[in-house]
Automatic annotation (TrEMBL):
<dbReference type="GO" id="GO:0008173">
    <property type="term" value="F:RNA methyltransferase activity"/>
</dbReference>
<dbReference type="GO" id="GO:0002128">
    <property type="term" value="P:tRNA nucleoside ribose methylation"/>
</dbReference>
<protein>
    <submittedName>
        <fullName>RNA methyltransferase</fullName>
    </submittedName>
</protein>
<comment type="similarity">
    <text>Belongs to the class IV-like SAM-binding methyltransferase superfamily. RNA methyltransferase TrmH family.</text>
</comment>
<dbReference type="InterPro" id="IPR004384">
    <property type="entry name" value="RNA_MeTrfase_TrmJ/LasT"/>
</dbReference>
<dbReference type="GO" id="GO:0005829">
    <property type="term" value="C:cytosol"/>
</dbReference>
<feature type="domain" description="tRNA/rRNA methyltransferase SpoU type">
    <location>
        <begin position="5"/>
        <end position="154"/>
    </location>
</feature>
<dbReference type="InterPro" id="IPR029028">
    <property type="entry name" value="Alpha/beta_knot_MTases"/>
</dbReference>
<dbReference type="InterPro" id="IPR001537">
    <property type="entry name" value="SpoU_MeTrfase"/>
</dbReference>
<keyword id="KW-0949">S-adenosyl-L-methionine</keyword>
<dbReference type="GO" id="GO:0003723">
    <property type="term" value="F:RNA binding"/>
</dbReference>
<keyword id="KW-0489">Methyltransferase</keyword>
<dbReference type="InterPro" id="IPR029026">
    <property type="entry name" value="tRNA_m1G_MTases_N"/>
</dbReference>
<dbReference type="Pfam" id="PF00588">
    <property type="entry name" value="SpoU_methylase"/>
</dbReference>
<keyword id="KW-0808">Transferase</keyword>
Length: 242
């Protein structure tokens, strides 16, 4: 059974990375990916708190961006409070675990994002993610540290077990890397066409673009078709200018 990748985005302390690795080891999660760790990697401060989960630390990979860390993932999740300005599905850790198990039975990879200790995930981090995971906890004291959040998701995934029958899909979702390539391709074409004519609104427009293109679960064939359309439009404009 393919376990989900645990992705720590801009983690700050080696100690917290080590404790997250320990939580992963508790529940048979062995794929830890770091996006731009503040103090670099390897980090000697991660070893002691890992409490023997050395196999997780030794296999840890480092990535320059969220898109790179999620490139092979067909299902993408982010742990955060419900985003008010992003119309994304919101599930509990238990619901996410069931989705991940069913997808794994179909041979599909999942990735779960966890934000930095102090600030959490940004709007740009969340824009290309398909599903939000929010823990139903005491609203009067709703703060979880990084390792606790990883432990909670790991526990639910481990308890979910293998599904008896995979849920059928009409098509296999394209990996996140292919969708990210589609977003970058369209963004480049829009910039060349002068679409981003209000500089102050450009970052928000780009986030909206990412949300629009990650909301449906495109198949790989659909992604290739859309990119072919963008390429044809761009080439048509160049021929008219020539």
């Amino acid at each position: 059974m393919t376990a989900p990748a645990i992705i720590l985005v801009r983690p700050q302390l080696g100690m917290n990375i080590g404790m997250a690795a320990r939580a992963m080891g508790n529940f048979a999660l062995d794929q830890l990916r770091l996006v731009s760790p503040r103090d670099g990697w390897p980090n000697p401060e991660a070893g002691p708190p890992a409490a023997g989960a050395d196999h997780v630390l030794e296999a840890t990979t480092v990535h320059e961006s969220v898109a790179e860390a999620l490139a092979d993932c067909a299902l993408t999740f982010a742990t955060t409070v419900r985003p008010r300005d992003m119309p994304k599905p919101v599930v509990t850790p238990r619901e996410a675990a069931a989705m991940i198990r069913a997808a794994a039975a179909r041979g599909q990879k999942a990735g779960i994002l966890f934000g930095p200790e102090r600030s959490g995930l940004t709007a740009d981090d969340l824009a290309p993610i398909s599903t939000i995971v929010t823990c139903p906890i005491n609203p009067g004291h709703g703060s979880l540290n990084l390792a606790q959040a990883v432990l909670l998701l790991g526990y639910e995934w481990f308890q979910a077990g293998d599904p008896e029958t995979p849920q059928p899909l009409q098509h296999e979702p394209a990996p996140h890397g292919e969708v990210a390539g589609l977003i970058a391709h369209l963004d480049s074409a829009l910039e060349e066409a002068g679409y981003y004519h209000v500089p102050d609104r450009t970052p928000a427009t780009r986030r909206t673009l990412a949300q629009l293109l990650t909301r449906p679960q495109f198949s790989a064939e659909e992604v290739r078709t859309l990119r072919g359309m963008i390429r044809a439009l761009a080439e048509g404009r160049r021929k008219k200018r020539a």
